[in-house]
Amino acid sequence: MLEELEQVLPGDIEKRSFEIITEELGERTFDPLEEPIIKRCIHTSADFDYADQLYFSPGAVKIGIEAIKKGARIVTDTNMGKAGVNKTALGKFGGEVLCFMADEDVAEAAKREGTTRAVASVKKAAALKAAETAEATGKPKEELGKRRQADDRPLILAVGNAPTALIEAYELIQKGRFAPDLVIGVPVGFVNVIPAKERIMQAGVPCIVARGRKGGSNIAAAICNALIYMSFNKTKV
Amino acid sequence: MLEELEQVLPGDIEKRSFEIITEELGERTFDPLEEPIIKRCIHTSADFDYADQLYFSPGAVKIGIEAIKKGARIVTDTNMGKAGVNKTALGKFGGEVLCFMADEDVAEAAKREGTTRAVASVKKAAALKAAETAEATGKPKEELGKRRQADDRPLILAVGNAPTALIEAYELIQKGRFAPDLVIGVPVGFVNVIPAKERIMQAGVPCIVARGRKGGSNIAAAICNALIYMSFNKTKV
């Protein structure tokens, strides 16, 4: 005997899914700004671990929404993550998704510097939004920020795959050479994933991180999409 | 105090990851053909549930490998799944990955027929590899197979997102109008995902299915990639 299908109109499936997630979360309560992000991660993975594992630095969600409203560029570390972000919705605010992993210059830089393409990609992202801080340079404040690009849209770095990308981001931030508005740090895996996430949580930048080993390009995209939908004041939950 | 980084060369990270997965699986044993697929699903999700949840119809892995060696077309139900498949490796056998979700004719067909793009996409895939069976048509055997396309490369349907796609595939297979060589049935979610997977496991086609709610475009891509790497006799485990 085959289990009967639940009769739900195609356009209502997502709504019904979020209702089921809410039911199963039961009595648990969340920060109202964090809740849509947590639920969307569960929605994309059917994994309720995300109810416990997501870390938000103070104000991170608000900062992410403000960035998107100002036309943020989202830089992903995989084309899979890029494919998963709702680019039509993001584009309504003037934003776009960039992934440098398959770029010729990134491949060349990685080869030349004996590093990975993930690291070279983050360097390329950093060049889009570099910062010189007083701490890093010892320069007086009025001389700072000269490297700022003409394109001063916010930048969100979304790492769903490579811990090396997150570690490189941490180091560039420490050196005052990268000033992302928000880092989504959700690489998945077994080698250096946890220490990479620890570093980014201590980097002093706004961040949303999946603690532990879990994450992925799908989770990175889900967090981006939750932020985008919240930017419309349509949280889809 | 930051946790120290494990010193692993970039090229060795995947190997080291699989070693950790093997260690943590401990005494468990798996079918040697199924093991690389199970481990790659864990590798892509850090979720050990896949050690228990993957279902393989008899001979499914062997059939998948044979299909890839013959230049299979892999049809995915998301561009995210398509992005995750190693197209360079697949291309060495003459294969390619197709996703019809963003196609104009699919959008039009969905609108015209009041269905979803996922369903219209599966119909388009079915047209690539239709079959007339004696059961469905009542015709004598020698008249069957006339709809077979000029391009007779094998077809693998890889569903990581839409249960409606899997249900449509089941119905077309039942009617003798779709003859995929292998179905990878790993949609994720909360509405009709489990009944959709039950149907495809009973459809009489070779299939690999993630039982329960879990799955995703990342899992669909991971299973495809495991099959591709095994086709080189390099299982990467």
From TrEMBL, chains A, B:
<feature type="domain" description="Cobalamin biosynthesis precorrin-8X methylmutase CobH/CbiC">
    <location>
        <begin position="12"/>
        <end position="230"/>
    </location>
</feature>
<keyword id="KW-0413">Isomerase</keyword>
<comment type="pathway">
    <text>Cofactor biosynthesis; adenosylcobalamin biosynthesis.</text>
</comment>
<dbReference type="InterPro" id="IPR036588">
    <property type="entry name" value="CobH/CbiC_sf"/>
</dbReference>
<dbReference type="InterPro" id="IPR003722">
    <property type="entry name" value="Cbl_synth_CobH/CbiC"/>
</dbReference>
<protein>
    <submittedName>
        <fullName>Precorrin-8X methylmutase</fullName>
    </submittedName>
</protein>
<keyword id="KW-0169">Cobalamin biosynthesis</keyword>
<comment type="similarity">
    <text>Belongs to the CobH/CbiC family.</text>
</comment>
<dbReference type="Pfam" id="PF02570">
    <property type="entry name" value="CbiC"/>
</dbReference>
